[in-house]
Every structure is written in structure tokens, then in C-alpha cells.
Specification:
Blueprint lengths: L2 H8 L3 H9 L10 H12 L13 H63 L7 H21 L4 H12 L3 H6 L9
Length: 182
């Protein structure tokens, strides 16, 4: 069977079209039908009596309202408690991280000071690898700060200066540039 044959089978004959056109488009149920259905549902016990709600004591409604307010208030209090607890934990974590950054920064400054003492001592060339390692660490720290606060102009200037003069110290000294990765 071809597609044309199938389309012809779907077409209605003129008699069928007339029969469909003669069908009523909507029917209005009799007025007493709704009352009969409601009475039948009441008789079967499937529909509650509308006066049953009016027979509840007034104190029951007051107890229900008090319970709803207590339930809402306890949820609000629980949410506040959880929020304060999570904020306190985050605050402690932030303080611990800030202290770790402070400790690492202080150790970096002490290490550079010891390197400076070495450079002023007997062998000034011995400080070269340490100086380069200090510059690489400073550049890495500046990059991390730029990621943390990209709009900070001070960090942008420090990073620009470090990138502009990167490697010039070793070239001016005439030594071979070595990168120390850690």
C-alpha cells in the first residue's frame, strides 16, 4: 500500500463529513444532575459533610495556629544557628590560612636576609642561586595574589615590574641563569 492509498483511506466520505457536522458541539447537563451526584457521594460516605468543619471547637483552631507559629519559629532558629555555626567555622579557617600566609612570608623574609648576609660575606657569587630562587618565589606569590585580587593596582604594578626585569640580574652579573623549581 502506497502513501497515496493510505491518505485516501484517511479521507472521509461526503456522508461521513455530513454526519460529523450534524453532531452537537456541546451538551448542557440537566440542572438537577449536580445535586444528584453530590447526594450520592454523601450517601456513600465519599464526600464530607460541609457542616463537619463548623463543629470543630474553637480552641482546636487556636492550638493549630500556635503549633504552626512554633514550627515556623523553630525552623527559623535552626537556620540561624546553622548559619552562625558555618560562618564561625569559615572564619576560623580564614584566620588559620591568614596566619599560615603570615608565617610563610616571615620565613621568606628571614631566608632572604640570611641570603643577604651570605652575599656580603666572603663569597658574593654563592648567593646567585638563592637570589634567583627568591625572585622565582616572589614572582609566583605575585601571580597568586593577582589571581586572588585581579583588580588590585599594587599587585598589578609589582607583577609588571617583576616581569619586566625578569632575568636581567643574571645577565648583568654575567653568570648563567639557572631556574630552581621547588
Amino acid at each position: 500500500m502506497t502513501r497515496d492509498d493510505m491518505e485516501r483511506d484517511d479521507e472521509l466520505t461526503p456522508e461521513e463529513q455530513d454526519a460529523f457536522a450534524a453532531l452537537p458541539r456541546e451538551r448542557v447537563p440537566p440542572a438537577h444532575l449536580e445535586d444528584r451526584v453530590v447526594d450520592a457521594l454523601h450517601g456513600e460516605g465519599l464526600l464530607a459533610n460541609p457542616t463537619a468543619l463548623r463543629t470543630l471547637p474553637r480552641w482546636w483552631m487556636a492550638v493549630a495556629a500556635i503549633g504552626a507559629v512554633a514550627f515556623f519559629s523553630s525552623g527559623l532558629a535552626m537556620g540561624q544557628w546553622l548559619g552562625v555555626r558555618n560562618t564561625a567555622v569559615l572564619g576560623q579557617d580564614a584566620v588559620a590560612r591568614a596566619m599560615a600566609v603570615q608565617a610563610a612570608g616571615s620565613e621568606y623574609v628571614r631566608a632572604v636576609a640570611r641570603l643577604s648576609e651570605l652575599a656580603e660575606g666572603e663569597d658574593p657569587g654563592a648567593a646567585g642561586p638563592g637570589l634567583e630562587a627568591a625572585q622565582v618565589a616572589l614572582h609566583a606569590a605575585a601571580l597568586e595574589l593577582a589571581l586572588l585580587s585581579p583588580d588590585d593596582p599594587t599587585i598589578a604594578m609589582v607583577l609588571a615590574v617583576l616581569e619586566r626585569y625578569q632575568g636581567q640580574g643574571a645577565e648583568q652579573q654575567g653568570s648563567v641563569r639557572q631556574t630552581i623549581w621547588f
